[in-house]
Amino acid sequence: MNDAKKPVDVALIGGGVMSATLGAMIKQLEPDWSIEILEALDDVALESSNPWNNAGTGHSALCELNYTPEKADGMIDTTSAVKVNEQFQVSRQFWSYLVAEGALPEPDAFINSTPHMSFVWGDKNVEYLRKRHEALRDHPLFQGLEFSTDRERIAEWAPLLTAGRALGQPIAATRIAAGTDVDFGSLTRLLMTDLQSKGAVLELGHRVTDLTRRPDGGWRIAVRPTGGTARTIDARFVFVGAGGGALHLLQKSGIREIEGFGGFPVSGEFLRTDDPAVVARHQAKVYGKAAVGSPPMSVPHLDTRVVDGQASLMFGPYAGFSPKFLKSGSWFDLFASIRPHNLYPMIRAGVANLSLVKYLVGQLLASKSTKFEALREFVPDADPKDWYRITAGQRVQVIKKDPKKGGVLQFGTEVVAAADGTIAGLLGASPGASTAVPIMLDVLQRCFPSRIEGWQPTLRRMIPTYGEQLATDEARAAATLGSTAEALRIQA
């Protein structure tokens, strides 16, 4: 336990995959630095990093159609897909390094080979998927992407998608065998265990209530332990990786950089089955196309999830609304986040996204049978008795100032760091966990600019392509993807 008179070098607020990743990286770069991790709940990875709270699988843009929009001229924009895939490869390289170093155990404790598929129906969507395949199939990061409109071929890939489907319905699918399923809950726990073995202190049941700048430039963290007496912890550097709780804490810090930021919480539900007979008929992560006018977060997907060695299927999401910023949060979270500096951006973003409000209202009013019909569009012969509802984690979409629009709703993540580099935090949601390593590299570069040059040799050992772009070098991409897959013992 830290004495307030002796600052820790690094305080990590939140026991999720972001804090665990940053802690693991810092321990490799500066083994002697002291690290203290503060988690409000009684275990780590219980919020957004939990695999049943949206963070399961590995978002690598192999199948997520919202990363490849069709432009007005009919061309497919692959910019976001390439960026997300490249970021995921950085994360995989770091994990494979930790496995080789013994910091992580057998890879199948957190990552498994799972083909990634896109699946659509209707002439217009079939043509879109054909064009997407043509735009990506020769790219170094998308090698092996297959396309088919043949019902029998698609049935071989994923039998649940075709059984019981009308014979005259046009369908198409893409598939790439090199996809993965990542249990970020398990990964977080494994990283935290290794951090503790290297001297880091993990404080569970310790809720951070305030952040105050110290005269020496560091931070005083006010903490209230569950059932204990409030105390303070001093730290030279603070990272706020508290998921939806990050906005409040960064606001409490008073740093100028958080001004204008707000958040819009979205809750959700999934349908899940653990029935072995059903699960055995689907071994893939399959994304569809969002309905016209629906937001990116509504893209339907049917995923194989392997959690603690047990395979299940999960379909959704079905969106909902709650003013909480965390599943374990307060009903007043949204209202408590409103400040004079973010009120106008939040209003402007709300006016510009009335379609999202309409979508959420529609989802809230939808009956159970209507929601189940959405599953049957994917799995025509789905039986209600095989599926049950689970509540997803809270997502807090970033709202930020915009010089032209006043405020915009941003679908993604945002690092907010003080100018002096003593504090940083992460706002936003997907692709989140899958791109944790490049996000934390951004934190390191922004908060420790004077040390980055000296860290270069270690960073390149941890991430062989650090500072490079795989997307522009086919030979380098093939070699890196192959060596990483071998190190993690997943299908290349």
Report a brief summary of the structure.
With 492 residues, the chain is of the alpha+beta class.
Report on the architecture of this protein.
Keywords: FAD, Flavoprotein, Oxidoreductase, Tricarboxylic acid cycle. It is an enzyme of class 1 (oxidoreductase). GO terms for molecular function: (S)-2-hydroxyglutarate dehydrogenase activity; L-malate dehydrogenase (quinone) activity. The protein has 492 residues and is α+β, with helices and mostly antiparallel strands. It has a single domain (8-479), classed as 3-Layer(bba) Sandwich (FAD/NAD(P)-binding domain). Helices cover 35% and strands 25% of the residues. It has 16 helices and 20 strands. It has helices at 17-29, 51-55, 79-101, 123-136, 151-157, 159-162, 184-197, 246-253, 276-279, 333-336, 340-352, 354-365, 368-378, 436-447, 452-462, 474-488; strands spanning 8-13, 35-39, 111-113, 116-121, 146-148, 171-176, 180-182, 201-204, 206-213, 219-225, 231-240, 262-273, 285-287, 301-307, 310-320, 388-391, 395-402, 406-410, 413-417, 423-428. Strands 4, 5, 6, 12, 13, 14, 15, 16, 17 and 18 form a ten-stranded mixed sheet that branches. Helix 1 packs parallel to helix 7 (184-197). It is globular, with a radius of gyration of 22 Å. The two termini are 45 Å apart. The mean pLDDT is 92.
Total tally of structural domains? 1
Quote the beta fraction: 15-25%
Q: Tally the beta strands.
A: 20
CATH A-level architecture:
3-Layer(bba) Sandwich
Task: Outline the biggest β-sheet.
Answer: 10 strands, mixed
Shape: globular
Report the CATH topology name: FAD/NAD(P)-binding domain
Task: Give the fraction of residues assigned to helices.
Answer: 25-40%
The average pLDDT is 92
CATH superfamily: FAD/NAD(P)-binding domain
Structural class: alpha+beta
Poorly predicted ranges (pLDDT <50, ≥5 residues)?
Answer: none
Q: Count of helical segments?
A: 16
Distance between the termini: 45 Å
Give the C-level CATH assignment.
Alpha Beta
Write down the Rg. Answer: 22 Å
